[in-house]
Amino acid sequence: MSFSLLRTWRTTLLSSCAVVLTLAGQLALAQTTAPATIRLSPDDQERGLYGAQRNFFFLPPGRTAEADYQSAGFFGAKLRPYLQGNASALAELNSYKRQKTLYLADKAVLLGAAGLYASQVFREQDAQYFNPTQRVAAGAAVFSLVATLFINRHTNDYLKQAVDNYNTSPTPRRGALRRPTNVGLGAVGSRPVLAVSWRL
User: Fold this and answer.
1) pLDDT digits (tens, 9 = 90+) for 98-117
2) In this structure, are residues 5 and 120 in contact, taking their beta carbons and an 8 Å threshold?
3) How far apart are CA 3 and CA 113, in angstroms?
4) Which residues lie across from 191 on neighbouring strands?
């Protein structure tokens, strides 16, 4: 066996070892870094049917510290940038936003009905508590209170489902180690090289 052939084999072997070690190092790094998932705070994760309508707090992908929790905002707008590219997660977040809008409208109806009722109490000389306008206001208030039950029933579930859809999505996320799309041998001058490429 000639010296140049030995040199070629040695170069190929060294290139292959370097690529294998690099890939193994990236895999080990990917396993030791924080998960590329969104995590809700423990209190928010426990919210169920008819849960409180306060803001959710979440850990962005790759963060693990307690101080890294962020508010999702009233409509979940601060969570939206993290869900880009995931249609099912965004659809759930849109449903959450719709429910929160209905929640605000419902509260406006309740406050308006209470204000209208109160404005009619001392409208005349004697206090009035059940004139026709007050009946309409009381009916609107009762309607609003019943509507609140239906609006709040699943509102929190929509945001939790959006996060779950993002976390279980099969699409690769930034920072995740992906399988090479092409692997082969090539040559640079008279030296063989192992070629590995990924599609972006």
Assistant:
1) 999 999 999 999 999 999 99
2) no
3) 95
4) 188
